[in-house]
Amino acid sequence: MALMSGCTSLQTSATEVGGVRMTDGRPVHDGGTLTIALNSDPDKLDPTLAQTLVGRTVFSSLCEKLYDIDQHGIVVPQLAAALPVTSADGRTVTIAVRKGLTFSDGTALDAPAVVTSLLRHRDLPGSARGTELAPLRTAEATGPYTVELTLKQPYVPLTGVLADRSGMVMSPAALKKYGKNFTNHPSCVGPFRFVERVGGDRIVLAKDPHYYDADRVHLDQVVYKPIPDGNVRLANLRSGDIQIGDQMGPVDVRSALTEPELQLFTSPSLGYQGIGLNVGNVKGLGAEPGRIDTPLARDVRVREAFELSLDRELINKVVYQGMYEPACGPVSPQSAIAPGIPPARCPGRDVERAQRLLREAGVAIPVRMELKVSTTPESSRFGQVVQAMAKEAGFEVTLRPTEYATLLEETDAGNYSAFTSGWSGRLDPDGNIASFLRTRGAMNAYGLSDPDIDRLVERGRTEADPAERARIYTELTRRVRAEHTLIYLYRQKNYVVATTSVAGVRVYGDGLVRIKSAGYTR
Q1: Which tens digits make up the pLDDT trace of 81-125?
Q2: I need a labelling partner for 400 at 20 to 30 A (CA). Which of 32, 371, 415, 436 fits?
């Protein structure tokens, strides 16, 4: 196997030599269908409502954003013509929109289209973008290609927010035509356009002739197939039935390392993985938190005891071959403000203290709880290790394997006690925290409500000084950890395996598989 970690820090190099197109110094041919295996079926193909990393990977080919990140983790313009201009008081932001761009349905992208999408992201009931865009007071097209945003207060993370799904611009014509059914007829600006989706089987995209950079798109078609089992993804790579395996697990990566027909793309993650506990989600996302009568929800000592029963280092070693990194907070070392934050010192396993906390809490032992895990073999191994560790401290953990899309629906609705919770991460730490941990945040499935956390989230959003922001997020991390509601356990690395017949693939810290300039070399 060729190790392509270096490719994560290189621009796609596209040239023409003697009439032959070259990408990364290799000849690529126009045409063909690329099949990418995802580790789960994406949720809604609607940027306003979507929550999953696998969905973001599909969007990277389908829906471009006002801004993107480059190979160095720097925010750069994409559909915008330049970085935003912010007024001295931080409350007015002006965005210049690129001219001459066309949606996949043939209609033009302009400033009013950007405004339509921004307001929909902010206001649509059930929007997963609502918390990100809550500081937005008004959005107005002040010219054909100029958008002016008025903010309720200065909002430092805004540019980073617009480099993700909140910055995706949808065709107003398609929104008007399809309404709530837009998810089945998505239309944006991107290298590929939507063709069809067969639930649980495939999502098919085709090269979009309307795309402004279509000359650099080599492939005719892209097919995304959900294949949850990493062993099956790897077998399909070997057979040639797929050309890219996304989110490959460490066991499968080690198995593939010796194979000359495969190449590995890797990058550090901006996100986190762990276990979420339901402490107040009784009526679903966005609703007022309520009382849940379980030992875990009633008493923080029980939650702390559960965390102390777990050994992060051993979980990484046994489940993930030592190829991930133990973690105990929301801010990745790759985050834009990470240099100013002292490295987190994760608590070690302490079974005796965990047992003492349970006695102090006066709960019946064993403490019974159900942990929902996804249906992948890796998630099953994780659940079994957690189950065995927690048992020694006085917990009886029942595992409930659940298909990923169903798991999201049930946890969003509050129908759970504990679940495997993770996030692919954002450059600005606010993107890893606010939507999940602020009271009634758009993705706060835990029902957590803490005035101190809310206050620190707001301070982090408005503070421009990097050193002060680092202090705020250091304190915010401490306060979040004290609640033991989202138990951070490890940080993944992004592992993507592809056949060597493909060039031009890019994997950055956000974990997305970018294939705009991908093509076949033979």
Answers
A1: 999 999 999 999 999 999 999 999 999 999 999 999 999 999 999
A2: 436
Across the range 338-355, mean pLDDT stands at: 84
CB contact at 8 A, 259 and 252: no
Q: What are phi and psi of 395, to 5 degrees?
A: -110, 140
Lowest mean per-residue pLDDT among 19-23, 191-195, 208-212, 493-497: 19-23
Query: How does 294-320 read in b/e, with b if 16+ C-beta sit within 10 Å?
Result: bbbbebbbbbbbbbbbbbbeebbebbb
Q: What is the DSSP code (8-state) at residue 275? A: E
What was the pLDDT predicted at 334? 82
- Give long-range contacts, CB 8 A cutoff, 24+ apart: 405-413: 405/40, 405/41, 405/43, 407/372, 407/374, 408/43, 408/51, 408/52, 410/372, 411/276, 411/278, 411/281, 411/372, 411/445, 412/284, 412/285, 412/443, 412/445, 413/281, 413/284, 413/285
Specify the length of the chain in residues: 522
Residue the block writes with tokens 């050309």: 243
Smallest CA-to-CA distance from 341 within 460, 187, 453 is with 460
- Taking the C-alpha atoms of residue 88 and residue 92, their distance in angstroms, rounded to an integer, is 8
**Token digits for 214?**
């279509």
Q: Report the alpha-carbon distance of residue 345 to residue 343 in Å, rounded.
A: 6
Q: Cα 473 to chain center, whole Å?
A: 20
- Bridge pairing between strands 325-326 and 493-499: unpaired
CA 290-295-299 angle, to 5 degrees, is 75
Beta bridge partners of 67: 77
Residues 485 and 470: their CA atoms lie apart, in Å, by 22
Q: Provide the angle, in degrees to the nearest 10, between the axes of the packed helices 351-361 and 377-393.
A: 70
- Count Cβ atoms below 10 Å from residue 502 Cβ, excluding itself: 22
Distance between CA 436 and CA 453 in Å, rounded?
A: 11
CA atoms within 13 A on the CB side of 419: 25
DSSP 470-483: HHHHHHHHHHHHHH
The count of other CB atoms within 10 Å of the CB of residue 404 is: 22
Residues 6+ apart with CB under 8 A from 410: 372, 402, 416
d(CA 506, CA 253): 17
Distance CA 172, CA 214 (A): 22
Q: Point out which residues pair with 284 in neighbouring strands.
A: none
Distance, in Å, from the CA atom of 485 to the CA atom of 104, rounded to the nearest integer, reads 42
What are 399's two structure tokens?
Answer: 């595992």
Q: How far apart are CA 109 and CA 95, in angstroms?
A: 14
